[in-house]
Amino acid sequence: IDTLQHVSLEAECWRKANGKKEANEDHDDPPTTEIETVPPWITRIPTCQIDASWINNGSVSGLGWSLKDQMSLEYFGLRACNRSLSALHAEMEGLLWAASCMRDKMITSVWFETDCSDLVDMTTNPMDWPAFATEIEVFQRLQEDFEDVRLSHIPRSRNGRADGLAKDAR
Question: What InterPro entries does UniProt report for this protein, alphabetically (predicted)?
């Protein structure tokens, strides 16, 4: 454990020394392109940013995901589907679709990132979200297909590519 903590601390120091600082993550600036520097001895887990686009009077919802794999190659997906019941339902549908796509691509470890904090809360506190019990159960079953899967919140300003894909799909 000490070795892992040391490697984690060393990786964090490497990122701070070689990475670009973010000014204020909480406000919605236009998306920017960032170059992420990862030390060569750290195995990179593929990161998949997800988003959904939903409007109240629209007939369809748009879903989008953007994947950066271990070799920093980028893949993406976009899809239009029947309008979801709510924006949050569309976000969950996007997560389920992205997880299915990652599984179909034989990716066994993936870190999902979303700008929807309720989606993260829904997966960490499922009992607080009874209206989504079926969708949460589907996600829990999908998680069993992965060795390592995580979902975390990122600022909207860092989710520009997935947001654009979802809007284009809609």
Answer: RNase_H-like_dom_plant (IPR044730), RNaseH-like_sf (IPR012337), RNaseH_domain (IPR002156), RNaseH_sf (IPR036397)
Task: For the sheet with 60-68, list strands across it.
Answer: 74-82, 60-68, 47-53, 109-114, 148-153
Tens-digit pLDDT profile for residues 114-132: 999 999 999 999 999 999 9
The answer to whether residue 151 scores a pLDDT higher than 60 is yes
Tokens 């997906």 sit on residue: 77
User: Which helix (H) or strand (E) covers residue 5, if one does?
Assistant: helix 2-18
> pTM for this one?
0.75
Sign of CA dihedral 102, 108, 110, 116: positive
What is the enclosing helix (H) or strand (E) of 139? Answer: helix 133-143
State the Cα–Cα distance between residues 125 and 55, nearest whole angstrom.
26
Among 17-21, 126-130, 149-153, the minimum mean pLDDT is found in 17-21
Q: What is the DSSP letter of 144?
A: T
Q: Is the dihedral of CA 101, 105, 108, 113 positive or negative?
A: negative
Show Cβ contacts of residue 104 under 8 Å, excluding neighbours closer than 6 positions. Answer: none
Alpha helices of 24-132 — where are they, by DSSP H?
87-104, 117-124
Domain assignments of the chain as residue spans, ordered by start: 49-81+89-169
